[in-house]
Amino acid sequence: MLGVLKEPLVVTAEINVNLVALTVMGLITRLWGLCYPRAVVFDEVYYGQFVSLYMKRIFFVDDSGPPFGHMLLALGGYLGGFDGNFLWNRIGAEYTMNVPVWSLRLLPALAGAFCVPLAYQILVELHFSHRAALGAALLVLLENSLITQSRFMLLESILIFFILLAVLSYLKFCNLQRHRPFSGSWWFWLLLTGVACACAVGVKYMGLFTYMLLLAIAGLHFWHMIGDQTLSNVSLLCHFLARGLALILIPVVMYLSFFYVHLALLYRSGPHDQIMTSAFQASLEGGLAQITQGQPLEVAYGSQITLRNVLGKPMQCWLHSHTNTYPIRYENGRGSSHQQQVTCYPFKDVNNWWIVKDPGMQQLVVSNPPRPVRHGHIVQLVHGITTRYLNTHDVAAPLSPHSQEVSCYIDYNISMPAQNLWRVEIVNRESDTDVWKTILSEVRFVHVNTSAVLKASGLIGASLPKWGYQQLEVVGEKLSKGYHQSMLWNVEEHRYGKSQEQKEREVELHSPTQIDISKNLSFMAKFTELQWKILTLKNEDTEHKYSSSALDWITMDTNIAYWLHPTSGAQIHLLGNVAIWASANAAALVYMCLSLWYLIRRRRRIYDIPEDSWQLWVSAAGVCGGGWAVNYLPFFLMEKTLFLYHYLPALTFQILLIPVVLQHLGDHLCRSVLLKSMFSALIVAWFSSVYFVYCTFSPVTYGQPALSATELKDLRWKDSWNILIRKQ
Predict the structure, then answer these.
(1) DSSP string, 21-86
(2) Higher pLDDT, 578 or 533
(3) For the chain, which residues make up each domain, given as ranges?
(4) Which residue has the higher pLDDT, 254 or 295?
(5) SS3 264
(6) Main-chain phi, psi angles of 306, to 5 degrees
(7) Is 46 exposed, middle or buried (0-12, 13-18, 19+ CB in 10 A)?
(8) Cβ contacts of residue 168 below 8 Å, gap of 6+?
(9) How far apart are CA 161 and CA 168, in angstroms?
(10) What is the SS3 assignment for 440?
(11) d(CA 702, CA 706)
């Protein structure tokens, strides 16, 4: 036992000095002066609001993407002790002392710094030289736009980090596949690929582009494996299952977990939950949950209810009526029934209350025991305050003449009988005997006489004129194909009516309501609803001063002013390193031309380069060229406001292509010693220009030192750049 102590215990480790140096330089360029400026910079005004809501546990919906990136920013605030108390209302607002600026900006800066060694390792794993890998890392290090974007509370640097991590992990996995399949390191890099892809998608949906690219590459690799006769069917099945587990199942589970944590953290009601369904709102602490707590679950004959339209956008609204009637004639000369108006009202009001009545009985109270209303039952809806019945008939609606007018019936002793019977159809029922439930049931009201469906048409059209108090139109929709959400209603507030006398009932309707609904809404139900809202809820896209088109990005014909000092000329811009952007475009062009040339020549059985060099060239096309294409070309199909920072993931892949092309030119086109020497000298001169441009634009990358008006004018290398110059 003691024999092992005869010799000293020695631990040896290999340290890649290149990686260490690149990481240190990345940290210096991204972390230096991180607290400056101590003011809100561009989209920090947007993301900061969500960080504050996380700190206060208040629910929100952000239509820009999944919650993982927001949670990472909030983690920085949490680690810094941020209490969420800051008014994020304008760019340039000075941060108060309770805002931990360094902590909030730390994670994006670290992500940006680690992109530098990741770029180095990707080129190494692609089997390019260490000089080429070092060049790629230094280009990422000196790219001004990547530095700017990573130094503030923004998500692009985090997105790029996870994208590069996913690519690197898959490349390491592929290289291990040839020699050590199913080893510990093989599993580690395969699983890390799936984790990184999930994180990239969880930060922004732009991460889907790279995820799809890696899935396509993995599918192509597996297709080649199928043709390998040395692999048994069992081995192929194991490979397939391993890839399915790591690249599909794990990302899906992780994506769901992001939402699970998001919903667990944000359990309090806030301004954003109004766009969610009543069931979702009732699951949040405060707000609707305070109103609905203790309500009866099952709607019965005699129930007093408010009916909220399920669509809920552009605003929520409730079925409503008041004593005013439709005008005898509208402005266009069409006539109306002159019955009592029925509308959809976007505010809570006593006139939103209705009583569910059994057509065969006169009582407006709940019997003992209550008789629940089920799917397919016929009911009458009595307006609580005016006691008039919800009615529709063959009279054109005020704003939708092809639909029927909906009113509360007034008997004028003319040949217009009441038509006030409605069939209850529970759309989300599990069986045809389901009971109509508070909040949970989504219901269509089908008119018995005409088969028209009660619809809040005002949510997808115009509001009523002044005679209707600009409230939203409600109609009987004759063509009721499908279940458009404007035709669906759910009971939000509910009580069992006890007062038969009208005056007592009015007092009852004015009093607040009191089965806990939240426990009936599962995580998957909440996730499905929230995911649908994120995908479908779109803010109106307005033209922004710094918005741009995808074509502007290639030549960097645009910039974004992120911050301007209130008194001096100090300012921060999202501007790229012109030398790097031009070189990246040139490298992409050279790569495409050479690839086309090689393909034509190989078709003629002429092989200009060795087969291993050709495979290396093709692998760069899949990773670098493919990464650029999938992260850039989709923006031509998007109808949204675009900004220069959307191009940064694609730019990162394009930068990786520069040393690939340079190494190829040096190895295969510069064959003599003289040419190689001249080519090396050109690379040194070119790299010096890259560093010169980096230094020239560093004042508007870091915001310091402040430049004079003349110096700022000298930085306007393109007329399309909007450099801010104060008038003297």
Answers:
(1) HHHHHHHHHHHTTTT-S-B--TTHHHHHHHHHHHHTTB----TTS-SHHHHHHHHHHHHTT--S--
(2) 578
(3) 24-261+576-669, 296-512
(4) 254
(5) helix
(6) -115, 140
(7) middle
(8) 118, 121, 122, 125
(9) 10
(10) coil
(11) 10
Q: Determine contact, residues 166/630, Cβ cutoff 8 Å.
A: no
Rounded mean pLDDT, 211-220:
96
Q: Are 470 and 526 in contact (CB under 8 A)?
A: no
Phi, psi angles (nearest 5°) of residue 261:
-65, -40
The CATH code of domain 296-512 reads 2.80.10.50
Q: What is the pLDDT of residue 38?
A: 94
Cβ partners under 8 Å of residue 633, min gap 6: none
Helix (H) or strand (E) holding 495, with range, is strand 489-496
Q: Can you say how many angstroms the Cα of residue 660 is from the centroid of all Cα atoms in its chain?
A: 34
Residue-wise over 190-208: b if at least 16 C-beta within 10 A, else e?
bbbbbbbbbbbbbbbbbbe
Q: Tokens for 314?
A: 């552009």
Question: 664 and 594 in contact (C-beta within 8 Å)?
Answer: yes
**What is d(CA 474, CA 340) in angstroms, rounded to the nearest whole number?**
12
Using one digit for the tens of pLDDT, what is the confidence trace for 424-447? 999 888 888 889 988 888 999 999
Amino acid letter, residue 469: Y
Task: Report residue 514's pLDDT band, with 50, 70 and 90 as the boundaries.
Answer: very low
Q: How far is CA 293 from the centre of its chain?
A: 32
